[in-house]
């Protein structure tokens, strides 16, 4: 068999939210490690430097190339400096993984105006700002791939009105950006992670809840951030060169079923334990 070259050989990537909010590996950290493992030079962007440093130490241990850049991606000047840092250090820009995202709970009756604005800024405006500065540099580099991290909460109501609204907006933004920048050779795609077990959700989970989440989707396996990272790796690579403007649920099939019908059938067949 011919020796294969790394899937992102020669590419430069920015991952926002490249640290994890708790112990373990989150979506941004997994993507950053996999990008570096496949030959990319990676700028690890996080508002909390220590979190990105942790990701850096994993990449360094594996012999990969990366650097930390501290930035708050709701701030336009930070986004501009972030892109310039990637160009200064590595000379080009091919991949932008817009991974940063947060949640605040509440209906329209409950959510404060400040929390609403904050969720929309972190989850949606950050993508606009990072992309605004990245796209011209990608064009200079001959094209690129932008990956926007949404959620299945952008496809279904999910107990947080601002989160669902912002994640649905990310999907609309993805289509619009794909249409606008496809002619420049820039692909823009979106991942909608399902109920993955990650540092972001771990503090709210116990084993019963994990079991319910695991059984909710046809595959009945628990997903983790590596599942999201591998999807980002594929979308970052030239293997997906003809994929543009899509939202890909990565959810063990959760959003492919009608919940009540599916749960009832599964219980009748004895495949869901109660
Ligand atoms: N983990 C899940 O269960 C799940 C499910 C669906 C979607 N998602 C989405 O995945 C993405 C993140 O996943 P993760 O596992 O990497 O999360 P995480 O919370 O573990 O890590 C996110 C990182 O982003 C950083 N960050 C937060 N706000 C920032 C800002 N304004 N500027 C710069 N950095 C900032 C944090 O410091 C943290 O290190 C989010 O968009 C989230 O909505 C996650």
List the helices and strands and how they pair.
Elements: E1 12-16, H1 27-37, E2 41-46, H2 49-61, E3 65-70, H3 76-90, E4 95-98, H4 113-140, E5 144-149, H5 161-181, E6 186-193, H6 207-215, H7 225-236, E7 247-250, H8 259-268
Parallel strand pairs: 1-2, 1-4, 2-3, 4-5, 5-6, 6-7
The chain binds nicotinamide-adenine-dinucleotide (NAD).
Structure description:
The chain has 274 residues and is of the alpha/beta class. The chain contains 8 helices and 7 strands; from the N terminus they run βαβαβαβαβαβααβα. Strands 3-2-1-4-5-6-7 form a 7-stranded parallel β-sheet, with helices on both faces. β5, α5 (161-181) and β6 (186-193) form a beta-alpha-beta unit. Nicotinamide-adenine-dinucleotide binds at residues 16-17, 19-21, 26-28, 46-48, 51, 71-74, 99-102, 122, 149, 151, 193, 196, 198-201, 225. The site of nicotinamide-adenine-dinucleotide has 30 residues, from α1.
Short description:
The chain has 274 residues and is α/β, with parallel strands linked by helices. Helices cover 43% and strands 14% of the residues. It has a single domain, classed as Rossmann fold (3-Layer(aba) Sandwich), CATH 3.40.50.
């Amino acid at each position: 068999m011919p020796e294969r070259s790394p899937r992102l050989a020669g590419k430069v990537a920015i991952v926002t939210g490249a640290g994890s909010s708790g112990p373990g590996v989150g979506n941004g950290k997994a993507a950053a490690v996999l990008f570096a493992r496949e030959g990319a030079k990676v700028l690890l962007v996080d508002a909390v430097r220590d979190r990105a440093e942790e990701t850096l130490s994993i990449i360094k241990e594996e012999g990969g190339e990366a650097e930390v850049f501290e930035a708050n991606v709701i701030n336009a000047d930070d986004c501009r400096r972030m892109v310039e840092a990637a160009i200064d250090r590595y000379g080009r820009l091919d991949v932008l993984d817009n991974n940063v995202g947060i949640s605040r709970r509440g209906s329209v009756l409950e959510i404060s105006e400040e929390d609403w604005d904050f969720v929309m800024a972190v989850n949606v405006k950050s993508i606009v700002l990072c992309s605004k500065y990245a796209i011209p540099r990608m064009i200079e580099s001959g094209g690129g791939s932008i990956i926007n991290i949404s959620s299945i909460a952008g496809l279904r109501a999910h107990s947080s009105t601002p989160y669902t609204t912002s994640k649905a907006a990310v999907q609309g933004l993805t289509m619009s950006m794909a249409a606008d920048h496809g002619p420049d050779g820039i692909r823009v795609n979106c991942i909608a992670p399902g109920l993955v077990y990650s540092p972001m959700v771990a503090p709210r989970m116990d084993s019963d809840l994990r079991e319910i989440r695991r059984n909710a989707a046809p595959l009945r396996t628990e997903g983790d951030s590596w599942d999201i990272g591998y999807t980002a790796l594929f979308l970052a690579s030239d293997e997906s060169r003809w994929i543009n403007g899509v939202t890909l649920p990565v959810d063990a099939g959760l959003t492919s079923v009608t919940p009540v019908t599916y749960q009832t059938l599964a219980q009748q067949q004895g495949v869901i334990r109660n």
